[in-house]
Amino acid sequence: MTNRRVVVTGLGVVSCVGTGVPDFWRAVCEGRSGIRPLTRFDTSDFRFTYGGEAQGFQADAGGPDLATQFMLTAAEEAVGGLEVGELNPSRAGVALATNFGAADACEKFLAQTVSVKSVEPGVFQALGMENDTDAVRRALSAVGGFEGPCTLLSLACASGNSAIGYALDAIRLGRADVMLAGGYDAISRYVWSLLSAFGIIVSDKEKPNLVRPFDKNRKGTIFSEGAGALLLEELGHAQQRGARIYAEVLGHAMNNNAHHMTHADPGGRGTALVMRMAAQDAGVSPDEIDHINSHATGTPVGDPLEVAAIKSFLGPRASRVPVNAIKSTIGHLMGAAGAAEAVASVMSIVDGIIPPTANYETPDPACDLDCVPNVARQQRVNVVLSNSAGIGGANSAVIFRRFG
What pTM, to 2 d.p., does this model score? Predict the structure, then answer.
């Protein structure tokens, strides 16, 4: 059953440049940054005060934790065209990913807890700390319920991409016909404290405060929040219900550098290998890749390693294949990064537009690829590879192809 073809029939996004695919895609193509001073909590005692808070999103004060609300909103958009009766609930599943989950609800829980003895079971539900994937499944019950395979992954910043891979395999192997895949995370004081400790955030002393992937003067990344969602379907199932098909999911791969908890392996060997594995799984050669949506975070060390990996993977074609970095506009969405970037990868196929790497000013000999600097490019894209990597050494790559 591994030859079952899988297609993308729905997309959804919450991001710092807009909520909903149209607003997100327009901003990314224009290279508009969503990085601003944080407003959700007092940042006066932090070294880093800029981030990407979700825009165009109205939080429900009485709802679940904020990250889950992001995911529910993206999921609703992605599943919007699916009608009641168009799926078998037991053949529809959910594969999600997050780094910090209900962190803001945990903060509220701790603030309201006087002692362990004072905690009542109902406080978890009141604070929205129930299982996140169950919350999404309940929200999807309006279309008949998603009662099939259900998982929640946490593989650092490779999480969102890995969830897409899990969903792809579930359909390929005949365990489901429909899978909602995505990633989500929210900024909170607790989350910001942890991220600040890594020392890879652009300092507030850098003005303007920008993420500059591949640029010689890059100083680091800036984290943001949101969610990305893709609805995947077995091809025959999608065609039978007359669904819009955005692209085909050709293959994916995951691996681990097994090198160091926070440092990438020398030469980007793990990233190069995961791209080769994904291409093999997809049944395509490196020569067929038209575009790479890179993980590039704008860090001094990470970007050249990914460039070296791409050169190893593409060979002589490396200088001619557009390799963009949309974290320059949307920041680093943590567990949602791969999912949001997958949405952009699919839209590049749909619209024939490769978004720019924004904020690019000074070329770096160590990052000498065609990074689509500052201005979007009109180009037919048939096959796109989306890269993700995470602390701990996790790597993930997904390949999409134009359907038809």
Answer: 0.93
